[in-house]
Amino acid sequence: MESLSDSQQEAVREMSSDRIRGRLLRAEMDEEQVYSMGRAELLGATANVMLEAKMAAATVQTNSDPKTELQVHFEMMRMQLEQRDREVHVRPGMFTA
């Protein structure tokens, strides 16, 4: 979530869990996995989907320049690693309502 802008974070937090699940299912995530997620996991997965979409759009725009494409790819990998690091350091039950 921290990789999103403040306004994006706020918008995601205000979404109902059902709306988030629908968004994740439209992003072709596994239905069983989506419905087994808690609120914190749903928020994190939604942030990942949003970041991936943003990076995919940037890649489409920069396909003509291999150096820029490599930079976009590197940035996407960095964000994914940061997200995984945050997920590892989140204690279970930390964000339950």
Annotate the secondary structure layout:
Blueprint: H1 6-14, H2 17-26, H3 31-36, H4 39-61, H5 66-89
Write up this protein.
By secondary structure, the protein is mainly alpha-helical. The protein has one domain. It has 5 helices and no strands. The chain starts with 5 loop residues before the first helix and ends in an 8-residue tail after the last helix. The model has no long low-confidence stretch (mean pLDDT 78).
User: Which consecutive residue ranges, at least 5 long each, have pLDDT under 50?
Assistant: none
Multimeric organization: single chain
How much of the residues is beta strand, in percent?
Answer: under 5%
> What is the global morphology?
globular
Largest sheet, if any? none
User: Total number of β-strand segments?
Assistant: 0
What labels describe this entry?
97 residues; mainly alpha; globular
Short description:
This protein is an all-alpha fold.
